[in-house]
Automatic annotation (TrEMBL):
SUPFAM superfamilies: Winged helix' DNA-binding domain (SSF46785)
Keyword field: DNA-binding, Transcription, Transcription regulation
Organism per entry: Clostridium muellerianum
InterPro entries xref list: HTH_MarR-typ, WH-like_DNA-bd_sf, WH_DNA-bd_sf
Domain HTH marR-type: 15-149
Pfam family, one: MarR
PANTHER family: TRANSCRIPTIONAL REGULATOR, MARR, TRANSCRIPTIONAL REPRESSOR OF EMRAB OPERON
Protein's name according to its UniProt entry: MarR family transcriptional regulator
GO MF entries: DNA binding; DNA-binding transcription factor activity
UniProt-listed SMART domains: HTH_MARR
Gene3D superfamilies xref list: Winged helix-like DNA-binding domain superfamily/Winged helix DNA-binding domain
Amino acid sequence: MDEESKELDVNNISSLRLLGLISKTSNIVQQVLNKFYKDFKLSETQFAALYLVYLAGEKGITLSTLGEKMNVTRANITTLVDRMASRGLIERISNESDRRSIKAVVTDKGKEIFKSILPQYEEFTSMLLNFLTENEKQRFHELLLKIQEELTKNYLDS
């Protein structure tokens, strides 16, 4: 091993390990949640879209707003909405105030499915972290928000 390798910054190794753990944990959480969604024949993205469209109520949500909230490109949100509309979960309607704009509105079938999933989702997600105390959850939440804010500010915002 050369001298340069021996003199690796301990703080850098710590950061590397921490980022690796964050990434690995995120992947594990995704796998666990995907198993849950699979039981309902939904993807995580479809569940998130159904949630946002459901919250928008009868007035619906424009596809551009839905895409922004989900951090999804316009092309991808169109494909997502088309798939969900073909399953009868949401309906595409023209925006009366702007004919170029399309809104997504939840259908009765979408409402029914969402209402049946939500209690199970809340129970499932609360069980995922039940080994943490409320104080640990609060601190973890604060740290994750801090990481998100700093990474976004320093590396993503133009």
